[in-house]
Amino acid sequence: MLKNSITYVIAFALLGFLGFTTHNFYTEEYQINLPFSLLKVYVFFAVFSLIICLLLNILSTVKKMENQIGLFYLASIFLKLPIFGATFYNSIFKITLNTNQRLSLVIPMMVFLAVEVFFIAKILSKKSV
Q1: 61 contacts 2 by C-beta, under 8 angstroms
Q2: Tens-digit pLDDT profile for residues 33-72
Q3: pLDDT the model gives residue 92
Q4: Nearest in space to 83 (alpha carbons), one of 114, 52, 118, 39
Q5: DSSP 3-state assignment of 62?
Q6: Considering the entire predicted model, what is its pTM?
Q7: What is the spatial distance between Cα 45 and Cα 51, in angstroms, rounded to a whole number?
Q8: Read out DSSP for 10-50?
Q9: Helix (H, G, I), strand (E, B), or coil: what is residue 126?
Q10: At what angle do helices 2-29 and 38-59 cross, to 10 degrees?
Q11: 92-124, pLDDT tens digit by residue?
Q12: How far is CA 116 from the centre of its chain?
């Protein structure tokens, strides 16, 4: 379990760093003005995804909870979007965003979601064996 936790921390930190620097370079290169902090968006998704993976990894060791991990993951996805919306409400709902600005919100979400799904699938497959 500790090995998996360290893997999650390293993966999300590395993905967050590489994703942010690449994305930030692109927005500066093409002079895309973002009304929100791109760093805060990446940090939000990295931390939230890391917490979800760590919690589900811990829950996978609890005998009574091992069959409920998929349900907990589904609930966490439904919680992530409203929490993100509440956290960045002024930046995303009070102004009109153009396509590049919208993509700058969706790209980090999709990148971290893909890695999150990969790790959760590994947790679920480990339990089904």
Answers
A1: no
A2: 999 999 999 999 999 999 999 999 999 999 888 789 989 9
A3: 84
A4: 52
A5: coil
A6: 0.93
A7: 10
A8: HHHHHHHHHHHHHHHHHHHHTT---SS-HHHHHHHHHHHHH
A9: helix
A10: 160
A11: 888 899 999 999 999 999 999 999 999 999 998
A12: 7
Helix (H) / strand (E) element for 105: namely: helix 99-128
Single-letter amino acid, residue 68 = Q
Please name the residue that has the structure tokens 């590489």. Answer: 18
Is-contact 41 47, C-beta < 8 A? Answer: no
Amino acid making up residue 120: I
What six digits make up the tokens of 109?
Answer: 């979400």
- pLDDT at 128 (0 to 100): 62
Average model confidence (pLDDT) for the chain?
A: 93
